[in-house]
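Now for today's protein:

——
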Amino acid sequence: MMWAEEPPLGANHPNGKDDRMIEELVAYVTKKLKTAVPSDLPLGDLDYQEPDLRQQMLQRSFEAAKALFPPKKVDPALCTVCGICRDNCPVGAITLSNAPHMTDLCIHCFNCVRLCPESAITADLKSIHAFIRQRASLIEESTKTQIFT
């Protein structure tokens, strides 16, 4: 979501090292699928936030979080109904007729905004960018890339 911000969070990622990690992951997962029984990921490996921040997040619902995102605006005059937005929606939340329509399945990834070649889909992300930067400074997560299988 921070693709339009300068400097973006996670600057310089992905990079060549990240690409190699993805290649290693694909090779590892492919090998495991062919030769081994998958094991469960210990949830403690994903539990890295400070207890008070973790508690705050546990009290939030995904539906409540979705309500915080700015609305997307579609300009039918700019839309060529190319389908790129629909084809790149990870949850299939976009239907096309004369222009894109986002259904209630939308998870607000904003791929449609980012990828629309005509800029027919827009959203004012300034408030979200400020919120993400504020949370990032509070949480102080590193930009280290990790792979969990």
